């Protein structure tokens, strides 16, 4: 559930390492650790579900467990299960809008929300943002097949725009508040049309444009009770399910006819 | 009233869906059409995934036509022989329709084709209906009655081989004609989630030349069985039938159908038909705008 790692992630040139070491010695700063928590680790989708409001919060500590005492920028990324999709683009051909081109992506998240203490562009440069998927423009969609970069960018932008208007992709440049340099919290709303599955919340602590700590926690979104039964029934017993649906509609029509005949 | 739809995967306002069902129910009670042509597009505008909307609308049409068939059969308004032939055609049509649905889905053109079908069908039939009812209203005003239309079937129907006698319809024609009509509406039902009543009724009147007394009852009879088959087909192939959604629609439509049937006796038929024609044309126009001017969405997502 909880996993913490030091920043750096290898590949650091000796020179920058030395420079950083010098900086640390000078300022006395060390990479902090993050202790993340979520208001609920299980979201139950059942009758009356209107979406859920998740509170993602936690503490920024030194490895010894005391207050870090330094200003860090915090970015929280909540990502839903990914799926393979075909994205189709309509173009006007002979006066009619038809699906003209398409692109396939292997890992399009069904939900993606980024909250940060400052707008992403002010915290990290584009390269770092792309590496850590900080922000909607940096989604790793894993396109299948080869496309020219321009077309790929157009399709990604189209997908992001579509999902954003459905409330499934969002970016909030002021969504994380940090108090007393130690506690951070972000509120992310799951709309009712979310997919079920495992959601991962990844928190990043960033200073001077460098990710110095990150931690992951998870949320299970699952259907419960009647809703789960209906879904399983429809998926596994299609024929019986169809019979039930037909029986219900005939019974309802018959019943209504009888009832109104009484009036 | 918030209701979560387990197959469509989203939460909707239950009252809106019930009201939608009631609206189409009233239409079906008043005009003898299923009203699916209205439900499916409106549900899609409301945000329900198109496949789920089409698959669940069919069961609503089933419910709305049950009481209609009962009422018509009680007064001898159903030609079971003719209906049986059309149901057989309809079943073949749903099978073909399921195949076409899959093919178009794979080609990625299902939404475009459905839109084009809506515009052509609704536009064409709405246009004819508007013209006729307008002429009827004018004739009533001026007091000059319209020349009575001679009831006879289309010459193409007469040229088909193998003739049967359909006593209640007053016809001696080849069963291939109603069979093909059944196939056609079966395909439409599967693709568009409509009962096909607004195609069947004029076709039975003007192409087959059936006697008017059995047209509505027989069309409802065919729709009843074909929509049942469609629900089954969707449940087995697309697995997109949402019973909760269907139940909400049914609550509205079965009661709406009763109200509509009573309203129909109070309002003059010509005006009623003119209103229906206007409604049909309006939806066709809305769909045409999406095709020719600007679609609602440039990008659409489908699972791989």
Describe this structure in words.
The complex is a heterodimer of chains A (263) and B (304). Chain A is α+β, with helices and mostly antiparallel strands and 263 residues long. Chain A is 30% helix and 40% strand. Chain A has helices spanning 14-27, 120-123, 126-132, 149-165, 225-236, 238-262, and strands spanning 3-6, 33-38, 42-45, 52-61, 73-79, 82-93, 96-109, 112-116, 143-144, 169-172, 176-179, 183-190, 197-207, 210-223. In chain A, β11 (176-179) and β12 (183-190) form a beta hairpin. Chain A is globular and about 85 Å long. Chain A starts with a strand and ends with a helix. The model of chain A is unreliable at 1-10 (pLDDT under 50). Chain B is mainly alpha-helical and 304 residues long. In chain B, β3 and β4 form a beta hairpin. Chain B is globular. Chains A and B meet through β6, β7, α4, α5 and α6 of A and β1, α3, α5, α9 and α10 of B. β6 (82-93) of chain A pairs antiparallel with β5 of chain B, so a sheet runs across the interface.
